[in-house]
Amino acid sequence: MFIMKKIKLTLFGMLLLGAVACKKSNNTNPSNGNVSNQEAADMVAGSISLNSNGVANLAADASFDAAVISETPNACGTIKSDSISRHSPAGAMYSYSYNVKYKFVVNCNSNNVPDSLSSTLTYSGSFSGPNLSSSNSGSSVFDVNGLLPAAKNFVINGEFKRAGSFSSKIDTSNHGNSNIDIVINSLTLTKPNRKIVSGNAAISITGDVPRKGSFTYTGTLVFNGNGTATLTLNGTVYLINLETGERVKV
């Protein structure tokens, strides 16, 4: 009888310890450094919106160059380098300041007519968005197709990278370093106004928070053609405003 009671108590103790361990595991996930899914989504929003010198900005820059070149005679093989300083208007709700350096090369078809543009950019600066502020630097490599007059759209493929420090406005204790990689596929902009109408991307986010650990998130992005993009991040879906960087859970 004593042995039986001891076994029952031991089993009860193991179950209790297991429940406590499970609860701790649910509350503190060492793989994400206490950075929540929505905070990771804010990092993506800050990497694609116009108000943070994101993909939308750099795609507009690249397609603008393509539009100018498509109307320039004898442009084959042209190489151009330039720089841009970009700042938010005074009194803007969300602020940003970036310096951008870019270089592009004009590619031509077998008839010596410009048909695509290879664009490389580097940038550095900072932004303060709806839920996140960041100081960062990065680069992009874009191929812009659609320079031929018969083409109805510009189509961009390439990769955008951003690395730097971040500070969450949702949880002010969450601040650290992040690396964001966005691989873009068939990002389509209309002619002549260069409005984003479709496209998709693969997302990868890594980083660390001091004394809390590292984090990793992956996801996909779909450009909807109405000024928004749908982000699916570790199974959670958000809608992102491409101008302001605001995001809402769907």
Shape: elongated
What share of the residues lie within helices? Answer: 10-25%
Report the count of strand segments: 11
Distance between the termini: 58 Å
The side-by-side strand order for the widest beta sheet comes to 1-2-3-4-5-6-7-8-9-10-11
Instruction: Determine the strand fraction and express it as a percent band.
Output: over 45%
Taking pLDDT < 50 over at least 5 consecutive residues as the criterion, the unreliable ranges are 2-30
What's the total helix number?
3
Question: What is the total domain count?
Answer: 1
The biggest beta sheet is recorded as: 11 strands, antiparallel
- Secondary-structure-based class equals alpha+beta
Could you tell me the mean pLDDT? 86
Helix/strand order, N-terminal first = HHHEEEEEEEEEEE
Measured on Cα atoms, how large is the radius of gyration?
A: 23 Å
Explain the overall architecture.
The protein is of the alpha+beta class and 250 residues long. It has one domain. The chain contains three helices and eleven strands; from the N terminus they run H-H-H-E-E-E-E-E-E-E-E-E-E-E. It has helices spanning 2-27, 37-48, 55-70; strands spanning 79-87, 95-108, 114-128, 132-145, 153-168, 175-190, 196-209, 213-223, 228-233, 236-241, 247-249. Strands 1-2-3-4-5-6-7-8-9-10-11 form an eleven-stranded antiparallel beta sheet. Strand 6 (175-190) and strand 7 (196-209) form a beta hairpin. It is elongated. Mean pLDDT is 86; it is low at 2-30.
